[in-house]
Amino acid sequence: MMPSLTSTLLAGAVLAFASAPVAAQTNWDMPTPYADGIFHTANIIEFAQDVEDTTGGSLDITIHSANSLFGHAEIRDAVRDGLVPIGEFLLSRLANEDPVFALDSIPFLASSYDDAQALWAASREAVSQRLADEGLTVLYAVPWPGQSLYLREDVTDPAQLAGLNFRAYNVATERLAALIGATPTQVEETDIPTAFSTGRVEAMMTSPSTGANAKAWDFTRYYIDVQAWLPKNIVVVNTDAFEALSDEEQSALIEAAGRAEERGWQMSREETDAKIAELEAGGMIVSQPSEALSAKLREVGETMTAEWEEQAGETGRTIVENYRASR
Quick one: how far is CA 291 from the chain centroid? Predict the structure, then answer.
């Protein structure tokens, strides 16, 4: 029996559909250091969804948060070496490799979100070029809330800082302690409550997020909102992996990164307000620095900036000049 015209047409349609090319999908794994509840990770999750939506699913990014795929110290190398195509890390972790990576951790150079954004605008090209030399393309960067003073006693006169045991955890915080006349004391983050309770530490500088998460009101009383520096997390992609994408996917990734950066800075501001409110609710006394303390801290910032410029050479001087001219 001859097949009907209808069955012939249906068979042809099925064959044509089966032989049509299926749109290729690129799947990327993305390691991040922080848990899903941290605003940086929440922003990255939204970034990945944005990329998937704008590429029609052709580029799919799977987030591996909380050091579950690679530890924080390994993420940059994993992206550079092509073990994963994309990742996030704290930029200042690379400070020992090049002074430009330490710029956003110079105390009192950029002590507000507006200043921090101006500093990033002035330094982004240099940071991007340095990472490009390693085969990495910068997508975006978002700061943590500013690092501020936690004290057992109120301080309005900078002379009150003299001799205080001040928590230090790297070369920069040791230098900061020395310049304000305090005594640098090495204390790991997990030991902070005990160190304060026993008097081994009387002051420290950290973000409102860390303070609220550690319930700082249990072991200290005063929070002075100096926003000494706003260190950034940076998201980078392996340049070879980026260039292997289609032009449309590359554009979608860059545009989603721009939205993630804008959104992330706003999330950081909101995190600051929420965590400071949490410190107050816990019983801490929150204040702005006195004029005398502000003046001393600006002096410290000038000294540490000059020291950084000496290390960073002409590139560093140009960045600082451009930053200051933009403010």
Answer: 29
Contact 159, 176 (CB under 8 A): no
Q: Are 186 and 159 in contact (CB under 8 A)?
A: no
Task: Find tokens 């943590």 and name the residue.
Answer: 144
Q: What distance in Å separates the CA atoms of residue 273 and residue 267, rounded to the nearest whole number?
A: 10
pLDDT tens, 68-86?
A: 999 999 999 999 999 999 9
Q: Is the dihedral of CA 318, 321, 325, 327 positive or negative?
A: positive
Cα–Cα dist 34/39, whole Å: 9
Say if residues 311 and 183 touch (Cβ distance below 8 Å): no
pLDDT in tens, 145-156: 999 999 999 999
CA distance 100 to 85: 24
- Beta-bridge mates of residue 140: 235
Q: By C-alpha distance, which of 290, 322, 2, 308 is closest to 157?
A: 290
Angle between helices 113-132 and 291-326 (to 10 degrees): 50
Give the whole-angstrom CA distance, residue 300 versus residue 107: 8
User: pTM for the full model?
Assistant: 0.89
